[in-house]
């Protein structure tokens, strides 16, 4: 299955309006489901929700944080990374800067900022955090709390090749256009579960990254 979810006219808003809406609709309250296995992040897809219930019973919760770095160009972009093919999980996939929350991290925000610096050298002085997006669960037991952030242009990246092999920017307008939101399905223990994909040129953005981008679209553009 490979089709857009909604046949609607793409929403277009300015950079100023995007950040204004984000600041109004997001905050820094940490959801209890980040660490509580009894609270299942809901996706609205029955197959996905059942999968997350099963995963919560079988695997320990793995709290994680990512940064959604929206670069404040006249035409905003989102900074993404391509993970190293040598990693033990999600090797070679397109991701946001981020990773597991360490005990030494003061908050999920602090974890996301630390990981962005460690992975691609994005310095904190360029980052203006806006708020947390909805908690996102994965089939690997991760509970991901994304931080939406405004990033000032002019930064210089330093790629940590042990973790990522590339960093690149994708126009926010492309990622927030529902015509680019494909739905694919795969089987999980006899049940169909869906996932998003947003192919961009030679980049295949899918899975949790595409799913989180879809949540961003729903929170900022549809609400």
UniProtKB/TrEMBL annotation:
Domain called Nudix hydrolase: residue spans: 60-196
Keyword Manganese in annotation: yes
Database matches in Pfam families: NUDIX
Necessary cofactors: Mn(2+); Mg(2+)
Keyword Metal-binding: yes
InterPro entries according to UniProt: CoAse (IPR045121), NUDIX_hydrolase-like_dom_sf (IPR015797), NUDIX_hydrolase_dom (IPR000086)
One Gene Ontology term of the molecular function aspect: coenzyme A diphosphatase activity
Record-given protein name: CoA pyrophosphatase
